[in-house]
């Protein structure tokens, strides 16, 4: 039999098979040829429990014992126990998969590495965080910086919902608060909010109009696309003088270099348009490129009105309606009059009117009559619901919409002879045009309230846009010697004060194919949430026009590259 050990303290050694072993160190169980005999004296700590012996008198290595004592187990069976412990910890502790677990070891979060594979954990496992995710999954689920407004907002104290950008407010109310799982789910759907099949089955189309929340055009969806609830509009008006030849490049008209960003909507009104209206629309599409689609286009004789929208915003536009009015005595002559287009975007209704009033320096009264006929006869809206019927009147179409833009060739002149006007222009310093504007017929009539009631105009800081000799910056040199005037204007009105903010109001002096200069305006317009009772346009746009415009754009780019390539490859030989 082996040596006898009795009365040992925890800091003492025992002798087994001729070797000194510290009680604080783990050791292997004795083999069949070895045994342990207890002394009759009481021990402070018993090394072997009689209940741990099997029928043959051997020590059972799998009998549980207090964790403060060394574990007695055979080396050939310790591997399976280690695997069990390790798998349990992988499930119940916060670990980093990029640490030692990939190389065979593992570490508990917030603690040091285990000293050996046979060591027992001391004390309870560390408490799990409420939100847990491994280090390698964090970069996978990291939301792109361009989509920070889609980040998960979780504030326990405020009790806010996990998702701010849900198309249905009840979407994830039954889902757990594990943001790691939410991030993993959202990463599979890009920036789109996940939708459960149950919500797709149960959702009513008219739910938004009844409950006021969860609407496709409601506040949550609006804030998702427009956090500040303002949309950008680019308005352009141009009297083309009926010229067949269009400018070689329309970039200066729609995409000026002094603008930092393109706008969400482009609305272009033309008076005395070119004979080929389809060609004009294709050229607009070619200029704006694949980011934009033609939402709608309407005409009244040679009056053209075209609306382009950003491709990803057409789903929030209602059906589009239009109407026309002629101000000629003979209705078949459609050179003077108006064409209007209306649609609702989210919960805000828009009306765009382009018009051409009676010409002539002294025909102010006739132009006022043109205005009165248009506001009374323009039959809009037709089927779209009025967003605020209590503020609408049947005698004025402009009162039936939230935001109204009216632009065109109004033909109002400066009430001074040409010599005096040119002298004022020569004395003008900078962009202060007030000495000219004080003689403007339209400004005078608006102050008196006889025309464009409730409309506003941004300060004019550009020279008169009429009348030029074609191809140059010289005002009329014909025998008529027409007085330079501000005939081309952009006006606006809103049901709510300060809903429309003017960003830019100027003329486009680089386009000289007409005796008029185009006038452009950039506006930020306040948006309000809508309800699902608004008939949506279902994303419709002119697909054929879009494809032709993009085809021309690609062809133009290929020709440009080919020209640059041939120019760079050509060589010039000189003989000295």
TrEMBL record:
The entry's keywords: Cell projection, Hydrolase, Lipid metabolism
Cited InterPro entries: Endo/exonu/phosph_ase_sf, INPP5E, IPPc
Reactions it catalyzes: a 1,2-diacyl-sn-glycero-3-phospho-(1D-myo-inositol-3,5-bisphosphate) + H2O = a 1,2-diacyl-sn-glycero-3-phospho-(1D-myo-inositol-3-phosphate) + phosphate; a 1,2-diacyl-sn-glycero-3-phospho-(1D-myo-inositol-3,4,5-trisphosphate) + H2O = a 1,2-diacyl-sn-glycero-3-phospho-(1D-myo-inositol-3,4-bisphosphate) + phosphate; a 1,2-diacyl-sn-glycero-3-phospho-(1D-myo-inositol-4,5-bisphosphate) + H2O = a 1,2-diacyl-sn-glycero-3-phospho-(1D-myo-inositol 4-phosphate) + phosphate
Domain Inositol polyphosphate-related phosphatase, first and last residues per copy: 229-531
One Pfam family here: Exo_endo_phos2
Topology of the protein relative to the lipid bilayer: Peripheral membrane protein
Keyword Lipid metabolism attributed: yes
Major location (coarse): other
Biased composition (Polar residues): 47-57, 109-120
Gene Ontology terms for molecular function: inositol-polyphosphate 5-phosphatase activity; phosphatidylinositol-3,4,5-trisphosphate 5-phosphatase activity; phosphatidylinositol-4,5-bisphosphate 5-phosphatase activity
EC number assigned by the record: 3.1.3.36, 3.1.3.86
GO cellular component, one term: Golgi cisterna membrane
Region listing for Disordered, in residue ranges: 24-124
GO biological process: phosphatidylinositol dephosphorylation
Compartment(s): Cell projection, Cilium; Golgi apparatus, Golgi stack membrane
Gene3D superfamilies: Endonuclease/exonuclease/phosphatase
Domain of life, source organism: Eukaryota
Known partners and oligomeric status: Interacts (when prenylated) with PDE6D; this is important for normal location in cilia.
Name of the protein this chain belongs to: Phosphatidylinositol polyphosphate 5-phosphatase type IV
Origin species: Anabas testudineus
């Amino acid at each position: 039999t082996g040596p006898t050990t009795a009365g040992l303290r925890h800091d003492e050694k025992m002798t087994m098979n001729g070797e000194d072993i510290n009680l604080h160190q783990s050791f292997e169980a004795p083999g069949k040829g070895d045994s342990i005999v207890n002394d009759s004296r009481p021990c402070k700590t018993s090394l072997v429990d009689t209940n741990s012996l099997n029928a043959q008198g051997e020590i059972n290595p799998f009998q549980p014992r207090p964790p403060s004592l060394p574990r007695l187990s055979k080396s050939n069976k310790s591997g399976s126990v280690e695997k069990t412990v390790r798998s349990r910890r992988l499930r119940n502790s916060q670990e980093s998969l990029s640490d030692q677990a990939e190389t065979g070891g593992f570490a508990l979060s917030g603690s040091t590495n285990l000293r050996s594979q046979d060591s027992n954990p001391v004390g309870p496992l560390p408490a799990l965080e409420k939100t847990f995710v491994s280090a390698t999954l964090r970069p996978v689920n990291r939301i792109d910086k361009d989509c920070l407004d889609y980040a998960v907002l979780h504030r326990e104290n405020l009790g806010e919902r996990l998702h701010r950008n849900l198309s249905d407010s009840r979407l994830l109310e039954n889902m757990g608060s594990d943001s790691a799982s939410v991030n993993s789910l959202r990463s599979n759907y890009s920036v789109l909010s996940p939708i459960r099949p149950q919500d797709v089955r149960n959702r009513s189309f008219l739910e938004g109009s009844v409950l006021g929340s969860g609407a496709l055009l409601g506040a949550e969806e609006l804030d998702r696309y427009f956090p500040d609830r303002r949309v950008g509009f680019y308005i352009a008006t141009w009297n083309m003088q009926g010229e067949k030849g269009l400018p070689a490049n329309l970039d200066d008209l729609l995409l000026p270099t002094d603008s930092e960003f393109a706008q969400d909507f482009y609305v272009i009104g033309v008076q005395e348009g070119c004979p080929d209206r389809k060609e004009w629309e294709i050229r607009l599409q070619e200029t704006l490129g694949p980011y934009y689609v033609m939402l709608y286009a309407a005409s009244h004789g040679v009056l053209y009105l075209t609306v382009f929208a950003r491709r990803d915003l057409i789903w929030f536009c209602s059906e589009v309606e239009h109407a026309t009015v002629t101000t000629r005595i003979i209705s078949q002559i459609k050179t003077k009059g108006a064409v209007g287009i209306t649609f609702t975007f989210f919960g805000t209704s828009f009306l765009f009117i382009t018009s051409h009033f009676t010409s002539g320096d002294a025909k102010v009264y006739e132009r006022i009559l043109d205005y009165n006929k248009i506001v009374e006869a323009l039959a809009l809206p037709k089927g779209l619901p009025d967003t605020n019927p209590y503020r609408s009147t049947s005698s004025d179409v402009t009162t039936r919409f939230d935001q109204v833009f009216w632009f065109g060739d109004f033909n109002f002149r400066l009430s001074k002879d040409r010599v005096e006007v040119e002298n004022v222009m020569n004395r003008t310093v900078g962009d202060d045009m007030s000495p000219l504007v004080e003689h403007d017929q339209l400004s005078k009539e608006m102050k008196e309230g006889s025309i464009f009631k409730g409309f506003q105009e941004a300060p004019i800081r550009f020279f008169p846009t009429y009348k030029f000799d074609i191809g140059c910056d010289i005002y009329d040199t014909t025998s008529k010697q027409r007085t330079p005037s501000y005939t081309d204007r952009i006006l606006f009105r809103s049901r709510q004060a300060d809903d429309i903010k003017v960003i830019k109001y100027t003329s486009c002096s680089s386009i000289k194919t007409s005796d008029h200069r185009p006038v452009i305006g950039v506006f930020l317009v306040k948006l309000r949430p809508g309800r699902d009772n608004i008939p949506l346009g279902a994303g419709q746009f002119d697909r054929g026009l879009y494809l032709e415009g993009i085809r021309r754009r690609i062809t133009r780019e290929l020709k440009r590259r080919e020209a640059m390539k041939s120019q760079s490859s050509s060589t010039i030989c000189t003989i000295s």
